[in-house]
């Protein structure tokens, strides 16, 4: 196996050759996910009740719970099978990360998209303050900031910038954003 991702209700893995595998409960083994046959998977992520993956072709697939729009499919309907997420024209995904009930997609141009629950500003989209978003939207990054990696906690996001700085947003308790400020914050 090349990579694994786990959550309350899911176990995913990337096998050699980029094959996406999921846990089969009744058999207690990992098996290739039939709906993704033929796709080469670059990264995987799990939220509390949803899963996401990025293919080497730069596409995103999501499935699972969608009560906060965390699948980015434009609605709040749960999906049992992986579904292709529509990215903006000419966008190519490099990776994906999931918080408990939100998803962040890293794009090849150093930008990020997010969807799902935004009750604590974890989407980095101030225009959506406190609301759930079922469609991907651009994270409001400071000027000239280009991201190279993204990771999510339950309700916060930490990104590595191309210039090796760290940028954080979302829920700030116990210093999880790496700042002294004691309230949740937007991107900075």
What does this structure look like?
The structure is a single chain. With 188 residues, the protein is mostly beta strands. It has one domain (3-170): Regulator of chromosome condensation 1/beta-lactamase-inhibitor protein II (Methylamine Dehydrogenase, Chain H, 7 Propeller), CATH 2.130.10.30. It contains no helices and 15 strands. The strands form four sheets. A four-stranded antiparallel sheet has the order 1-2-3-4, with no helix packed on it. A hairpin with a 3-residue loop joins strand 5 (41-46) and strand 6. It is globular and about 45 Å long.
Query: What's the arrangement of strands in the largest beta sheet?
Result: 1-2-3-4
The third-level CATH topology is: Methylamine Dehydrogenase, Chain H
Mean pLDDT figure: 90
Alpha-carbon Rg, integer: 16 Å
The CATH class is: Mainly Beta
Topology as H/E string?
EEEEEEEEEEEEEEE
Shape: globular
Based on helices, strands and strand pairing, what is the structural class?
mainly beta
Keywords: Repeat
Pfam families: RCC1
RCC repeats: 58-109, 110-163
InterPro entries: RCC1/BLIP-II, Reg_chr_condens, Ub_ligase/GEF_domain
